[in-house]
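Notes from hallway chat w/ T.B., transcribed later so I don't forget. T.B. wanted the structure written out for a chain they're using in a teaching module, and asked if we could keep both sequence and structure tokens in one place. Agreed to drop them here.
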Amino acid sequence: MTARHIDAMHDARPIVPAAPATIGYGTARILRFVRVSTMAMLAVLLFTVVLLRVAPLGNDGNVYSGVRIADIEVGGLSEAAALELVQSRTVALAEQPVMLSFDGQTLTPRPRDLGITYDAETSVDAAMAYGRKSGTTHGFMNAASRDEGSAMIPLSIQFNADQFNAYLDGI
């Protein structure tokens, strides 16, 4: 060994384990804040999950309030009551003539003469499904974000092209 190696060995400091670090008052406050904040966030998350599972159950199978089929208010009605109301309105609508004008000639056939029928069942099914599809979370978010009267379901219409063409051929 050279003198340089011996000097380096004498200069080396012995390895002593460090004393355990103590947590100061400020650090303890931060850790307590993090624990309390985490617990609060978990409580809010749990409350939200419970709310999302329970909230849609309060509707008891009725159409959500504010839902209309065309201009027919069906919100809050049971499926049967909504179907009865829509059917009664569409029967009257099917008898109301429409005006067709072409080349100076005006005709006033009824929609059913033109092969147009109104499908009340499909329309009511769509109204019942509004706010309920894609699971509970989607349903709750739809119900919670709606304004009164904001949901308008179109009236389902069936069209028979053969009947329409037969009407036109008879002109």
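Follow-up for T.B.: The chain has six helices and seven strands. Might be a good example for the class.
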